[in-house]
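FAQ: What does a multi-protein file look like?

Like this. Sequence, then tokens, then the next protein.
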Amino acid sequence: MAKKKNIFKELHQLKQEEKEIHEKKVKEIVEETYHNQTIKLETYQKLKKITWYHYLIAILTSAILLGISFLLGIFAFKDIKKTEWIVVSFFVLILLIWLILGWYKNKQAAAYFNNHCRRYQSTLTDEEAIIKKNRKILLIIAGILLISSLIIFFTICYVK
């Protein structure tokens, strides 16, 4: 019985040592990431910033999706009222892609810090900045599609 207690004490002590080593590694990674961060932060901010042509891309993508939905509604479904449902389906698809990109960003951050508790913390990497920029663009597209679907719903469906 005494042997079992000693084994359990040793296992508990080993787990505590592993935990301390892991915490030290995480602290080193965090210190390395945020040490001398001015250069990293400057490039990170430049990469995640949305410029005028990103807004143009979002507006053109929304216009193309609206055009496709009108074409599908008129020619494929033979009813203009189906256009609103197609716009809403594009909206849901864009939001789903937005959520998947957020999940991927959080998973990458957890792997970077080697700690799932820090998955929402910024890693200041170029890849994360690009993902954040793409998520912003997708959110702009989703907003335009939402407003367009509401306009289509209230004009086409209620005009008699």
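And here is the next protein:
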Amino acid sequence: FRNGRYLTCSAIFRGRVAMKEVEDQMRNVQNKNSSYFVEWIPNNIQTALCATLPRGLTMSSTFIGNSTSIQELFKRIGEQFTAMFRRKAFLHWYTGEGMDEMEFTEAEFN
């Protein structure tokens, strides 16, 4: 997560934790790190609490985030694809299986 910002996120807690404490802490995280969250989606953190203890632990949590940083990954993969396609690297494996070179050209621009 380098240059992206969170659109939404969810934190799921298991164990003996007060829901008020969870929500207060998550609100605190969002306020302290507001630059990492988009401002045009208010209340974009969801919390859930399961009172059942995880086996062997007193508490656990899971974080799921929807971030704009994925676009960096797609851009990098697209650049690598273009560089390899320009050199026609590994292309013979695909054309030998029946694919047409035009399919790769179309994929590059989509």
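Q: Is there any per-entry metadata?
A: Some entries carry free-text notes. For the entry above: The chain has four helices and three strands.
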